[in-house]
Design brief:
single chain; Aminopeptidase; 3 domains; 8-stranded mixed sheet; 6-stranded antiparallel sheet; 32% helix; globular
Amino acid sequence: MTKQLVFFLTILLLLPLMALNQTLLPPPLQHDFLKLTSYDELSSYINEVSKTSGRMKVEIIGQSVKGRNLYAVTFSEKEFAIDQNKLRVLLFAQQHGNEQSGKEGMLLLIHELLKPENRYLFEKIDLALIPQINPDGGEMNTRRNANKVDLNRNHMILTEPETIALHSFFDRYLFEATLDVHEYSPYGEPWEHYGYRKNSDITMGAATNLNVALAIRDLSNQELLPFVFNYLKERKFSAFTYCPGGPPEESYIRHSTFDVNDGRQSLGIQNTFSFIQEGMNGKDDSIENIRHRSEGQMTGMRGMLEYCFRNAGKIKTLVSESRKLLTEPPVPTMVSIQSIHKSNGSILPLPLYSYATGKDTVVNVKDYRPVVASLTDTEKPEAYLIPADCTLLTDWVKRQSLKQIPYIYNPGDRIQQYHIGVIDSIDFEGDRIVNPVVTLQELPVIPAGKKFIRVPLDQLKGNLIILALEPQSMLGLVTYPQFASIIQQEKIFPVLRLHNNFITNHTK
C-alpha cells in the first residue's frame, strides 16, 4: 500500500469525526434560542461532544431527587487534576431551576472552550463545569428542587442529594477558584413604585464572610472583579457589583450575605477564591431575551477564566498559604460568629433603569452598607466533642465528610461546656433567628458512660465547623428547624469544646 493511499484512507476515516466536531452546536445555538435547553438535550450534547474531544470529559457526580444525572464536564490537556501545578477551577450553574441563563451560558462556554484558539487556557488551568445542579427544578422551571428545597440555602446542612454531590466533587479535587452562577430579579412592585430598577447585565460578588482569609478577599475585590467587569464592558455587556437590597431610601443596599449556606460562601469559607455571578433574568418568563442573557453569562464566566489563566500562579500560591492556616494545628485565634452589615460613609452610585424615561441612569445610594463587621467572636478550640448517640449531629458530620475519631479522654485535656440561659432572638439580614444567652463552663470530667466523637479543627472546613457548632453562631445549625431540638433553654448544650495542652500553653 502506497503512502499516498494510506494518507487518503486516514483522511476518509477522520472526516466524520471532524465534521461532527464542527457541526455539533450547543442546544441554544441549534434551536436559535427559541426554546430552553431540556435536560435530555443537555445530556445528549455533552456526551456526544466528549466522544470527539481529547481534552473534554464527562463525569456523573450524583443524581437529583428524581434520579436525573448531575454532570461535571472537565477540561484538561492531559488527565484532569493530575498536574499539581495547574490551577483547579470549578464553575457551576442553575442551583435555582428557574434561573435558566446560567445553564444556557455554560453550554455556550463549552462550545467556546472547544475552539482551537482557546486551548491555551488549559496550559495553566484544569477546569470543571457543572451546567445544571438542579435538573429537576430546571425541567419544572421552578426555583427549588423536587423536595421543594432551595439548594442555595442548603450548603450548611447538606440534606439534598444535589448539594451533597457538589460538595463531594469539590472535596475530591479541592478546587482553588470557584464561580456559582445565578440570576437576579430587579422587578417587583416596590421597584415599580420607586420608579427605577436595577439593569446590569451581569453582577458579581466575592466572599464576604470575615473568616475567609483577608488576602483572598482583597485580591477578589481589588483585582478579579474589576478585571471581569472591564472584560464584560469591552464586549458590550453592562456589569456591576452584586449588591442586593433596595429600593434606595426604603431599604439599605449591602454586599450580599456573609452566610455560609450558599454556593459561594460555603466554598469560600475553605479559603477558596470563590465568587457568585448573577445575570438579570426575564421579567415575564425564563426565555425572555434569553440570547443576550446567556451570552452575558458566558462572557462573565469566560472573563473569570481569563483572569485565572493570567494569574494562575498567584492564585494558587495565595490559596495554598491561606489553607495552611486551616489545616495546620490550630493556634489561638478568634473567629467571628455574629456579624452585621455596616456603612463606611461612602455613597454608592447605583446604575438603574428609569421607568419614566426608559433610559439608564445613576442613583446615589446613601444607606449603603458594604462593610461586614463582627458583633461576637469566639476563641478557636482544638476540637469539638459530639455525643456519639446524637445521630442528628453525627449524620451531619458524615454528610460534610469531616475528619472525626472516637474521643479518648486525656487527663491534660481542658473541656468546656455551654449552659444555655434565656433564648432570645437577633436580627439577621431582615430575619429573626435564635440568639441564646450562654455561659461557658469548665467541665472537670466527662460524664461516666458518655461517649463522644472528636471533630478536630485542623481541616479545611475548620471555620465552617465553628460556625456550625457554636450555639450563638448566626450561621449555626441551631438556626435551622431540623436542628432546633439540640438547643434548649436552661439546659447544657450537647456539643463540648476541647482544648489540648498545646492550646492551653499558648493561651497562658
